[in-house]
Design a protein that fits this description.
By secondary structure, this protein is α/β, with parallel strands linked by helices. The protein has 24 helices and 20 strands. Helix content is 43%, strand content 15%. The strands form 3 sheets. It has an 8-stranded mixed β-sheet. Helix 10 links the parallel strand 8 and strand 9. Helix 4 (155-178) packs antiparallel against helix 6 (200-211), helix 4 packs across helix 9 (242-258) and helix 7 (216-233) packs antiparallel against helix 9. It starts with a strand and ends with a helix. The structure holds phosphoenolpyruvate and magnesium ion (MG). Phosphoenolpyruvate binds at residues 410, 412, 451, 546, 567-570, 617-618.
Amino acid sequence: MERSTIVRVHEGLHARPATRFVKLAKGFESDVDLIKDGKAVSAKSSVKLMLLAVKENQEVTVRANGADAIEAIEALIGYLENPKAGLDDEDSQPAGDAGPKAAVVSAAESAPAAPGAATGLRGVAASEGFVIGPAFAHFPPDIAGQGRMLQAEEITGEIERFRTAVSAVQARMDHALAQDSLSAGDRGIVAALRDIAADDSLTSEAEGLIKGGNDAISAVITAASTIAADFSAVDDHYLNARADDVHAVGRQICLVLLGQDDVSLENIPEGAILIADDIGAWDLARAPLKRIGGVVCGHGGATSHIAIIARSHGIPAVLGLGDQVNALRTAREVALDGNGGHVIINPDAATRADFAGRVEVAAKERAGLTVFKTVTPKLADGRIIEVAANIGSLEEIEAAQEAGALGIGLFRTELLFMRHMHLPSEDMQAETYAALAKAFAPYPVIVRTLDIGGDKPIAGIEFPDEENPFLGWRGIRMCLDRPDIFKRQLRALLRAAVHGNIKVMLPMVSDISEVRQTRVLVAECAAELKAEGVPHAAFDLGVMIETPAAVLIAPALAKEVAFFSIGTNDLTQYIMAADRLNPTVAKLNDVTNPAVMSAIEMTAKAGVAAGIMVGMCGEAAGRPDLIAIFVKMGLTELSMSPASIQRAKKTIMAMAAEG
Ligand code: PEP
Ligand code: MG
């Protein structure tokens, strides 16, 4: 028997709703199918259900065959029509992305390097500070199959081995889900992976390949790629992101088959130095940052997002070591000098003593700076220099307040989008921006609209493969092409502006039309909110100056906006044509190069002439050696990692004292 209905599940049967539907369906003995546009799939497979791409307000049919068919249809139709009824909240999280996909080889378990041999390596000084700690090498192994076909007599055993591995992965995920300490967000991620691991789409595809003579690892890799490709092909951004989930589950199964452990960054010991060839910004952002003593990476530069995260959490980091990082794979202990960009493997007694001295000096310097927390830096002519904080989450508010930030000069909204692994709702964004506005009122909070693409892609928005992503579809370019996403953010910002001093700035502006188009959207959003009777307020609109084009049209731009904020991280890479992530061009990626400094000066001149505020939120804003130059150029706002704020205030006060 069968019955049709219109789906009322918000945003359709993606991820978690699919899981709930499957959970319900599995409670019945009957065979149950869901049919859309003539295509029927088993309602007991969340993967197949997701691939059916059922959207809200579409018509579907539930068909059941068996003793309890009537009850099954009633329950499933009931869910589709009224998804909120009778739910347990364990399922209320959206699906996550890749989740625990990286394997970690703990150096403590590896062969120790020869004691006493202190070897020095040189990389990019990316986050200041000195630290010695146990090495925690994070090199996810490459996974490859056996590269030979199985003999007929090997096949049964290989299927058995595969099934055991799948069970082990499921058990591991169940164990993780049973932990009370798992945050709601992580629970959603693990639960989504568990559904895929428990679904027979992946396992039956892999078993079919093993029966055809493939070894289990090759079979899993191929099966995962096939199913992931199906997810990528669906015309739904949420479902496209599930491709990563499938790969993550496949990887977990392969690691068990290889007998390798997959330890996540969660297990990093207190004070350890994280060593990796590369780490995703999001992977680092959600790692237990309080426990990480230092970061060493083969990739990255001083203004890559790993560096920015490390700096904002006061974690010393040396990046861009290139292949030299491999020398650290077996290190027991590492000494890291984030000021000079030096890394010393297995430090000897002399190095230890030297580092202990430096740590002490740095601690003394920090203690001496705390008097500047409550200082409002003023120049001899009475101009106040707003020393503000760059943050990316509400969790960082406290550090910014503790440091004495006079507001927020850059709130990077990307983390909000990355963290939730689905596009955050307008309500959730409005709450976040309002919380910030309230925390710093009456000081300004400058929220940067979504700046993804380049090195910051997120799940939930499909990005094209680009030859040069830094020159591609990112920042304001992407937002203007996706008014559905952009307007949601602008509406949230208008709503939050009621609660404090919200200002909004646009990233990656290179043409004046981008500002004008944004203004049209802002006006549209304000009109909609008014019509809906939702409280909202106007905000100042500014732009980041981070492309050479923006510098060159700065006089015209200044007439259209309320403020400039110079993004030296991108401005430097674009002026110098030197990738901010590529250590081999790190020397060219230098903000003090006369070309970059003159771009900053041109921007300042244009802003000052137009009478608008000119600030800076790139990493250069916190450099004590450059602050006086920027202030003399006419900048009146400098925004930086909270860790740099007190020293910046001291520098400005010293400058004021000199007259
Ligand atoms: C910049 O480019 O200077 C900047 C502040 O933005 P982001 O580092 O996030 O690209
Ligand atoms: Mg930038």
